[in-house]
Automatic annotation (TrEMBL):
Transmembrane segments: none annotated. The lineage of its organism: Eukaryota, Discoba, Euglenozoa, Kinetoplastea, Metakinetoplastina. It comes from the Eukaryota. Pfam families: DUF1935. This is DUF1935 domain-containing protein. Gene3D superfamilies: Golgi alpha-mannosidase II. Residues 11-111, 122-231, 246-356, 369-476 form the DUF1935 domain. It comes from Trypanosoma vivax (strain Y486).
Amino acid sequence: MEPIPISEVQFKQGAPKFPYKLVYPCFSGANKDLLYRLVADDRWAFYNNSNDTVLVVRATFGKDSQVKALSGTMLKQAGDNERLQAITSILPGCTELFVEGTINGFELEFISEAMEERSPHFENGTPSLPYNKIYRCFKQQQNGMLFRLVTLDKESSEQTWSFYNDTKQFNMEVEVTFEQPEHVRPLDETSVTTESEKGRACYKLVVPPLSTKPFAKGIMQNYSKSFVARPIGSARPDDAALPTFINGSPDTSIIAYPCTKVIRGFKNNGNGLVFVLVDENSHKWAVYNDTKDYRITVGAHFGPGAVYKPAKKVTVTEDPNVKGGTVCLIEVSPVTTELFITDGNPKDYRLSFSAEDADATTPEKNVSYENGRPDVNVMAEVDEVYKCFKDRGNGLMFRLVNKKRGQWAFYNDTKDATFTVKVTFEDSDSATPMGETKVVEDPAEGKVFLLDVPPLKTKLFACGKMSSYTMTFQGKRSATKVS
């Protein structure tokens, strides 16, 4: 947009606190005076000319731009790693310094957010969780329908968000995309999807009628929100109060069922496959695996200060990514219920799930190698051997385990195929790559361990506490056959 003659600019909330030379409107039409971009030589600032709207500015600069952030602006690489992106929030009637430097082309994106609701009006109920501040989500609809509840920890500056659905006839679908997801932890039933191209993370939650649901906790900066009110009659299958079990049912001698809360593990696969069962009355958690063919590992990442007593079969370690946090892991066999927490109702947690073919977890008793043998110079002592392809010939490739040293290796027993091993660990810091194994960062899966194993070769893979993982193999025919 072209700059506005300074004589025609009307600042409704007072003069900007920036010595500008040029003024650009950020919007056109009826909202043209809502936000202004102020420019003085090589410095930018933004002035929010409204009295009730918080505005977020996201600017992406051309790849030859050289800029530095001013004031509270966050500066980071854009998704293509060639351009810089700057983000800031401007309160009503306020001026925010933005960037300084040489700018070679740019794109601007704006997001608006309502101010705090001073006197909320609830029509059908009240929130069941405490809050310091409250915001209407549907500003133009009735009383707001859905409310965002915010509490602030003054010592840590962390916020806890919850959502209250004040309607009787709608399921509310909440989506919030955070620019800095490493500072935010999902709570309870909130799911997270990473946007690999842009480094963002989308947090999602469904809030049933007249319910209050915890959403997330952390440093809430630079985010965008969307809300969908979906009539109950058109609710998706995973919104149902109780799941449908296919191969059995939870063992009621371990935990009372039905119970307070049921969390599906794999929401996009069938009925969910595995379920975390929470009985808040008895302070117990359990995990039920409703599959016949998979061993499923469930991980619970608890925040600092969480109080609970893990069951005997649960492995507890420190969370390497959260100071004071803990990680609980349990492996559950097919059609089995395992006790997870024997006493406690922690609220600040994140769940993760991984599945592995049940047969693949059983070591071979009588191994039949057809074209060679594992190289003892690579791994001299082997305690367990696992087939990598259970249904192909003799297994084609084998995972070799030295339990005493906590080491894995792979032996390729074919003469004409190279196999690629791909493993993701629940706790990636518990494993250390060995030999030619590479570790790459995948936006969706985290740290991925990769190794190519040529025909008739034995290759070291990793060492450490490798108790929870997902493993896949891919084969490619070699140009020449090894004799």
